[in-house]
Fold these 2 entries.
Entry 1:
Amino acid sequence: GAVVSQHPSRVICKSGTSVKIECRSLDFQATTMFWYRQFPKQSLMLMATSNEGSKATYEQGVEKDKFLINHASLTLSTLTVTSAHPEDSSFYICSASAGAATNEKLFFGSGTQLSVL
Amino acid sequence: DAKTTQPTSMDCAEGRAANLPCNHSTISGNEYVYWYRQIHSQGPQYIIHGLKNNETNEMASLIITEDRKSSTLILPHATLRDTAVYYCIVRVVPGSARQLTFGSGTQLTVLP
């Protein structure tokens, strides 16, 4: 099956610093990527949808200036958590779709555990 | 996308079949039923999906009732590695690249 690679798997940073998370589709072109966040013992919550070459669409309550999403190529999307604070500590997961005609399955990265001290 | 209702948790003995139910009484004619699972601290893993016919693959079987208002995911011979949260999701496809909306899921614990 299709593979989505997400890095890093775990990151610890100091409060106020920025962290970049990469999501790559390894064997298909991902026209759309989704970014989710998951707090302990909770379900995945969609943060934003990114389409290659255009601005991301953010869900209500998600600060676009804090969570910067770039989807400059068909195989790479990045999420940058700017000026991270302890409340941003969470499990971040990306998901990729090959497009409307072939998006029967969404494939997920392995997730990034962010801990902000 | 239609909402789904799943039991919060279930236990299953290793080697036995695990039957995970899901109610989706408001499902529309163009919505598929998807199952994903999430093992602790990992990303969700696709298991199976279907529209109205029963489906089987190397991981599991999906049984959808004739009225499509409920379904059951069957893991025929559960192993300890099947311990995970299982999510039942209904979703319209194809037509546009849409996200998956996750509910609370069912925590399946396979007991030795």
Entry 2:
Amino acid sequence: SAVISQKPSRDICQRGTSLTIQCQVDSQVTMMFWYRQQPGQSLTLIATANQGSEATYESGFVIDKFPISRPNLTFSTLTVSNMSPEDSSIYLCSAEGFGYTFGSGTRLTVV
Amino acid sequence: GNSVTQMEGPVTLSEEAFLTINCTYTATGYPSLFWYVQYPGEGLQLLLKATKADDKGSNKGFEATYRKETTSFHLEKGSVQVSDSAVYFCALSVPMNRDDKIIFGKGTRLHILP
């Protein structure tokens, strides 16, 4: 399985600002996924990112709020834009491959 | 649509007790099934998986058998340890789906008392 490095591991941000989360995979993968885990909740898929095309967003998530980049087959970023306290969550990236490896997550607190 | 239902927690057991966490699924096609574990303050780790009916996934003393007739994938461990305290997520993916994403259950928090 792939190994994913995700950073930052945690951050505290002011409302109205933006944070970009990075995920680096140790092998080439076609699909990467971004999830949100709100406190005490399960994981909700934000979007699927394929290299060379625009990300596909799930219902309730929009590109203006969560822009995603996928410049190559080993890297992706998720930006949480114009943050509010409701965006306080753990954000995780995942790469395809049987079993879907996950990054260690970014714990975001918006104050 | 595809969905996963797992027993609500928290589940509290004494060390060395037998563990069962129930998981049932609804899926079109032929799903692959997973159990993930999330230790406090950490990300998600794949615990075990099964790809077809009657497959048994196992790891670290945990087991789960893919039961197509009951659409279930219950997680079991014969003797739990304090270090097993974590949140456990049952999940599925249907490889032929357009986007091949994983769908998670709501998670079950497990507390093991020494």
